[in-house]
Amino acid sequence: MTRCHSWATGITAAVLILYFAFSDPQLAMERSDMKRARIRDLGIVVGTLPPGPLNAITDVEGVRVGHVTKIEGKGKLVPGRGPVRTGVTAILPHSGDIWHEKVPAASFVFNGCGELTGLWWVRESGFLEVPILLTNTHCVGRVGDGVVSYMQQQYSQLGIGDDVVTPVVGECDDSTLNDIRGRHISEADVLAALRSAGGGPVPEGAVGAGTGMICYGFKGGIGTSSRVLPADQGGYMTGVLSLCNQGIKEELTILGVPVGRQLTGRSVTRKSMGSIIIIAATDAPLSPRQLERLAKRAPLGLGRTGTVGHNGSGDFIIAFSTTNRIPHRPEKNTRTVTALSDRSLDSLFQAVEEATEESILNALSQAQTMEGRDGNIAEALPLDQVKTILHH
Amino acid sequence: MTRCHSWATGITAAVLILYFAFSDPQLAMERSDMKRARIRDLGIVVGTLPPGPLNAITDVEGVRVGHVTKIEGKGKLVPGRGPVRTGVTAILPHSGDIWHEKVPAASFVFNGCGELTGLWWVRESGFLEVPILLTNTHCVGRVGDGVVSYMQQQYSQLGIGDDVVTPVVGECDDSTLNDIRGRHISEADVLAALRSAGGGPVPEGAVGAGTGMICYGFKGGIGTSSRVLPADQGGYMTGVLSLCNQGIKEELTILGVPVGRQLTGRSVTRKSMGSIIIIAATDAPLSPRQLERLAKRAPLGLGRTGTVGHNGSGDFIIAFSTTNRIPHRPEKNTRTVTALSDRSLDSLFQAVEEATEESILNALSQAQTMEGRDGNIAEALPLDQVKTILHH
Amino acid sequence: MTRCHSWATGITAAVLILYFAFSDPQLAMERSDMKRARIRDLGIVVGTLPPGPLNAITDVEGVRVGHVTKIEGKGKLVPGRGPVRTGVTAILPHSGDIWHEKVPAASFVFNGCGELTGLWWVRESGFLEVPILLTNTHCVGRVGDGVVSYMQQQYSQLGIGDDVVTPVVGECDDSTLNDIRGRHISEADVLAALRSAGGGPVPEGAVGAGTGMICYGFKGGIGTSSRVLPADQGGYMTGVLSLCNQGIKEELTILGVPVGRQLTGRSVTRKSMGSIIIIAATDAPLSPRQLERLAKRAPLGLGRTGTVGHNGSGDFIIAFSTTNRIPHRPEKNTRTVTALSDRSLDSLFQAVEEATEESILNALSQAQTMEGRDGNIAEALPLDQVKTILHH
Amino acid sequence: MTRCHSWATGITAAVLILYFAFSDPQLAMERSDMKRARIRDLGIVVGTLPPGPLNAITDVEGVRVGHVTKIEGKGKLVPGRGPVRTGVTAILPHSGDIWHEKVPAASFVFNGCGELTGLWWVRESGFLEVPILLTNTHCVGRVGDGVVSYMQQQYSQLGIGDDVVTPVVGECDDSTLNDIRGRHISEADVLAALRSAGGGPVPEGAVGAGTGMICYGFKGGIGTSSRVLPADQGGYMTGVLSLCNQGIKEELTILGVPVGRQLTGRSVTRKSMGSIIIIAATDAPLSPRQLERLAKRAPLGLGRTGTVGHNGSGDFIIAFSTTNRIPHRPEKNTRTVTALSDRSLDSLFQAVEEATEESILNALSQAQTMEGRDGNIAEALPLDQVKTILHH
After folding, report:
1. Which residue out of D173, D174, D179, D315 is catalytically annotated?
2. Does the interface predicted TM-score (ipTM) exceed 0.90?
3. Which end of chain B has fewer surrounding CB within 10 Å, N or C?
4. Residue in B with minimal Cα distance to C312
């Protein structure tokens, strides 16, 4: 049976995962790490800026996140049949009508060996007019098609009297655990992720597009974090959500400590070095030029978790501001916008770097051990060991 | 009945088009223009370099092109049902195993308000490892998914023991004539376009992805052209294939003459200003850096056909060389490649500009009048008038 | 005697040039072309938009231009001594305090084989805070140093309590006519160009930085043009000033006619293919992102004059808007700016393309024949022949 | 008396600095830190790859470095007179004829608020054909002019029968310590730096262009480091030289430890956030595309020293390979080059990141306390404190 559900009904999946975990004697050894936590709750504090109330991208008002997690089958890979360890994640930049109230946006491609469709349009127009979807590499087409369905359903004149639409879909490769050839994300899954998207706490780890991802040799996936600036610097909120599939064990660095070299647990060695998609949201009134500069800082936060930025890792960053929305069909040729001085950017740079770094660590600290196709296992980052190493 | 067929069986479609054309009294007036021709056959010679034997992208040895043209229904638009005026075009960079013998490639995005997926990977890696597909905007996802199917069929270890794949799919908006919301390109159409792809003459005009396109207010679509350098400059062959959907009537310029302003025929006015996708192939041993420079010259050829390069026009160029192929899994860390001196680039720049300009004119001079959804008609460029204006 | 003078006292130089011209029997044949004109005054009308009152970049309110032309000596080159055929041109974006009221700016590098210093800062900051200077290739350092002198004189705290400054200096290679090794532009010349800069008609042809430049094999140099939009499209003024040193005779195209191939006059053949620097100014309230898009269209206008965009040609475009000025030390973190909808850009694109094309033709039609070092002669474009060819 | 000397005669300058240092009672307190060291000699080991024999950019065979350090006067700033705390540094990519044997090169601009002239040419051509010079911001013009002098002296046909030259000059702002308005670098200084350039150990800290620089609130300047790959990965040597003027004290991070927050010494607070220029050299046979990818990794090493990448920091990276040299006037149109597989890049990425990080720490650990204009003092990084903090 295919277990396709939004995160609101994620309990079944969690149960399923735990079943896998504990039914495997090897995994039983990892029990002490089964209790997952956010990295900050372990006393590991990244940077100096305070997080928002949820320490999540949803701290930026109006930003919504929805996951559909697909876990099905076990054992030997039968291409097209499973096992399935994948999903789709939707990020909506605000709670209104995105097509008619576009948001300023930009991107930075740190390493292009991956895909984030629709980026050329974002760069040229300086705005984002669709939700951002994340999934596995071979499902990009299907998920993009699902976004077109979603947009066509929302806007009946799209492609008739109105413009056409270009989806924004990012991907990482989950083929170590997942039957990626099976392309198990359907239009219905995309619609479910979009419709279930909400504010509030964001499920992290092996959920949504993160279900089958591996990060620094351990189970990775979705992580999020946020930072709020002091009131005298505008009090702006900046949030990051990352789909983490990058790095090798030996690189993993936490708070500057090369933890990965000291961890003794079993880790996954992949030929491919994975990828990361980073989404940064802010309510600071940034222009596309400024958002590109913001996006360009995210790799510094990424780099502090240890990766060298591998040749085959598709590392894409997309950033948007929820302020200064752009009308789809402006009534007048000109409008008035609020511009932030570049001299105020430094603390926003710091915010995005800290939130990026923490989002990656959250993906690791929240993800549960996952057994995938052919018995491939991505173990949860052993948090006890991490704490021991850091407090040594 | 859906008429889905490769260009090898294009006669039915042509009959159908002619039926539409002549059954409409207004169109009957255009009879004298019904006989289409390549622009050069009208005595209109672009530039000074000689074309290759076919004056087509297939003059570059090994390059193959396949079209699937989909024409179905007539009259009022019923979204999802038709009328269908669309298609898909496949370009394969050589006749061998593209995945294992990648070709050096690069791109230039003259205006990003459109989509050509997979371009970040091409830019970062410097190679193309998949066929290039062209289609309509809302079918990009389905066509990309079809490319994944094609690649998975070809390579059984893709996504298992081998890497994952990112499709390269470009688009233009054919919604003035076509039921674009219906997304009428299926996986089977993509596979048919890829499998029917061959060398030899390339059908032009309202075929493949060009079926529903409009160019400078007239019926546009697919055009192609080539140039060969003198033997003392290496004798290299450079070919261009364009999917032409750009511009407004008043801009149309042929051999420097502002023909569009003088043409009296009925032309289409669109809100959106269309787009163009340009594919340049060469057997000159160019590096990705040099190919990017080559791609950057194509807009000069485009500009000479009159467009200002509209805000909403997604103008993408991708260029590849068939020489210096890159192994998928190299046996050694280093290999030997042939490098062309930058001092030899000027005539290649000229070649790509001339072939781009001529390919656009060929799309116009070859395309037949097409009636699409809601009785929208894109008339064929009236060649008699053009000749009269030019020879005045 | 060194003849260093601002254009306000340009008569001496003109006399000197005429002396050269008529003392040479070969040149006397060109007498009929000695009377120079702006291209539009010859009945050659580029495009469809109307020019501003002066048909010059100075039609954009506040923009000022100053030239210093240096002509000295004759005959055999003695490196370091002469003959001197060079100069410097200054463009100030407005008539106020540029450092404290910066203007939004951007650039596009069509071909990077040249130099326009300070461009990275312009791109990153999105503004221009210094005048733009143009000169010959080997004088870029000295001219940049002169700009630092100018700025230090204007702002006594620069480099002490205030920021440091990065000059914006563009160049072309005038070594066919000029003793470029002599680097004959001094700090005093730079200051004179800046201080003599004014509004009003802009001297064109062999003046300022254009003194020794060659364009399409004929005498080139400085050209300018402007376009004004209809009132219902905002009535914005866009002006272009070009330093024209690009192309070979066979390429020269005027109004789409390949004039160069038919001209019988003597033209200069150079190993190097020259370069062009294009400066676009507008009072439309464009953001840096939009100005970059504007700059990206200038090559279409350039391409319509015939060049293929040679390998060795450094083709740089810088664009700025005089609206929405940016304070040096903002009092508040945010300010309000006017934003133009991207949907209004098309006519600005057209304006910049037409003004670019016409500015290049003006440089050619205004430049007088110039004899330079070693008796190298760049003849004036034979306007009678051009008219005959065009009206044929 | 102006003390202008190459590093070969650096002893006078060192004596002078010590004189300043110890004649100031405040500075005497810092005595224990006066003994400078390379960071590795303090037991602080960055990364896991081994350095080359010199742990310097000169480990890449043929790379030469020359410094001219200018220290003059003391006390109150008299603009134009001093005090002088500046210099110039030259890096030559190989020991042969750079103009006729150009090296493949590329760049990455992490933050463009600074200057590295000539970069557009490097990017377009894919090669470096001149030495790289580093200096202070206001001397860029004079140093560029000095490079033209140097090239003209070397190549008598430059600008006559041969091409013209575009200098590559990078800068940082040393105005906190130096009379930057005085522009105290002369043509003679540039020539001296170039002519004194050699292989062997590279003086670090407050030498050459680094003389007046400040880094993380402490005395910064020049630092260098190198890494060698294992033989089975090609055994390639990669070296980095950085001109370090970036960051604020609170950011300084060493081996992941936020040392800056804990250091109690007096540090400099600047309005401007400085800049960094990073030069990476390798003997791996990289193409310009690959070198750009290498350059793009340097910010990860930079980021690990703590900076957020400030708005006003001009952070430029230029990378070159000493292999596959490009002839100035090729005899044939094509030549054969060695290409490294992208799959071999990861360890080179690691090398450049580690060498960048260590080069910055070396600049800090080697620089002596410097008193500059108006009694402004940049203290040496207190190494004893650093060690205590790290070993705590």
Report:
1. D315
2. yes
3. N
4. B343
